[in-house]
Amino acid sequence: MAKTLGAITVDEKKQRFKAGHKWHEFKELISYKQRIDNEHQHSGSSIRLFGARGSSSTTKLVTKTLDIVITLDSLDEPIITIPIIKKPLKGKAFENAMTMADETKAALEYILRHKE
After folding, report:
1. Is 43 in contact with 58 (CB distance < 8 Å)?
2. Burial level of 14, CB count in 10 A (0-12/13-18/19+)?
3. Cβ pair 67, 81 in contact under 8 A
4. Average pLDDT over every residue of 99-107
């Protein structure tokens, strides 16, 4: 029975997985990597301290995009890119996207360990 794990579907019995629209054999998986594009965002504010003017800025890291790139031993489809984050997200939406990325990577690790 096939199980959806993150952004892929895995059929353990038939030793295959589905990423996108096509099924692939476990043995086709060569590697995967996470590709992330972060940006530093600065938020500044003017402060007044003991009569002197100054400014304060804080920097936070914002994830703009996150993809999982899968390399396959296949001429028809040598690379599959799974977009997890397509624009900056906050709060629960960001947490859900990171959970999906973690589940997808765990499933790919499983496939790498169990391929023939």
Report:
1. yes
2. exposed
3. yes
4. 96
b/e burial code for range 64-89 (CB count within 10 A of at least 16 → b)? eebbbebebeeeeeeebebebbeeeb
Residue 72: band (very low, low, confident or very high) from pLDDT cuts 50, 70, 90: very high
1 Cβ partners below 8 Å, 6+ apart?
11, 13
Give residue-wise pLDDT tens across range 3-60: 999 999 999 999 999 998 899 999 999 999 999 988 877 666 555 555 566 555 677 7
Closest CA to 25 of 37, 36, 14: 14
**Amino acid making up residue 80:** I
Is residue 108 within a helix (H) or strand (E), and if so which, with residue range? helix 91-114
